[in-house]
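Hey,
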Amino acid sequence: MKIMNKLDTWLPHSQLPRLNNFFMCFETDNIRDCSVVLENVTCNVKDRILIDPLAVTKVFKSMHLKKVTGPDNISTFLLKTFAEELTPAWHQLFQLSINTQVVPEIWKKFIIIPVPKTACRREDNDYRPVALTSNVFKSLERLMLNALRAEVEPVLDEYQFAYTNKRSTSDAISTIMHFTPKHLEIPGAYARLLLTDFSSAFNSIQPHTLLRKLSVECIPLFNQMVSLFPHSEATAG
């Protein structure tokens, strides 16, 4: 069996186990560190988030039809086309997952597609891992995100623009261009600007640090998110 990548060249199936081990080697330390954190974390959240069935239907209908299926082989076409018919069943499963603080094993799995970074590939690092996850779980994540935003946004810095709803790099630049000249109008004032760019900022987040911070705040859905660590499974395909 062979798999075709985006550059229309063939990647032998025999190379996939090696690539799988290469991609997952970055998670070794995270798994160990997460285990240490979870052994010392206690978070008793009494409030339970209630999912609105209408919100489930809305999420299903907003799906893009071209999204690839994950390990569960449930397509966005199925969820989008029959959103209203499927909502009652999936709503019950979503609510059960939140109430019991358990994430089904199939939702923890994802398929890694090795996409070439360059036309000439000589080593494993020349491939970029693209993870295909369950479309159903993506829907639940969107529903969970709305609940988490309400808990997290009050403690965010007012000038945080990255990974913030309805904010962008353009907003950050406009803010700098507004406040810097205004500050320089003060006699004897000066400004020093430090611009940094973090490579793969989102992907380099350390899960054990995130878990520790979330446990301090003891936010809703914490225990359910904990069930995702450290047992996620990946397969190169």
